[in-house]
Automatic annotation (TrEMBL):
<protein>
    <submittedName>
        <fullName>tRNA-yW synthesizing protein 5</fullName>
    </submittedName>
</protein>
<dbReference type="InterPro" id="IPR003347">
    <property type="entry name" value="JmjC_dom"/>
</dbReference>
<dbReference type="GO" id="GO:0031591">
    <property type="term" value="P:wybutosine biosynthetic process"/>
</dbReference>
<dbReference type="InterPro" id="IPR041667">
    <property type="entry name" value="Cupin_8"/>
</dbReference>
<feature type="domain" description="JmjC">
    <location>
        <begin position="1"/>
        <end position="90"/>
    </location>
</feature>
<dbReference type="GO" id="GO:0000049">
    <property type="term" value="F:tRNA binding"/>
</dbReference>
<dbReference type="Pfam" id="PF13621">
    <property type="entry name" value="Cupin_8"/>
</dbReference>
Amino acid sequence: MDNLLAQVTGTKRVVLYSPQDALHLYLSGDKSEFVRAKRYECVLEPGDLLFIPALWFHNTLALQFGVGVNIFWRHLPADSYDKKDPYGNKDPVAATRALQALERALHTLDELPAEYRDFYGRRMIQRIHAVGKNFQ
């Protein structure tokens, strides 16, 4: 979800990465490590506000004891979100289903000999690239 971070007291370092750099980040659960992604960094002081758009990877580190307040809001239809995820940390429901379908498809390709897996895997990649071009 979109997020407005308000620093009330103390200071906090915030590092952000654009969703366009997702392929340059290693994802492990809900944590990420950057590789070649463009890093945006700032230090929030008391009274500062930072808008963090949905899909932006971010990490915060308190530089001194403080209080920060996050305000999250949804911009997709309510049924797009996992009802057990009040902070929007999980993927939208449709994206979760799509990723699960991809995992099942890849697992199914494992039933084929290597040269067939390669051929059909490349066809899947072409299809995904074609879909991605529709969004650019």
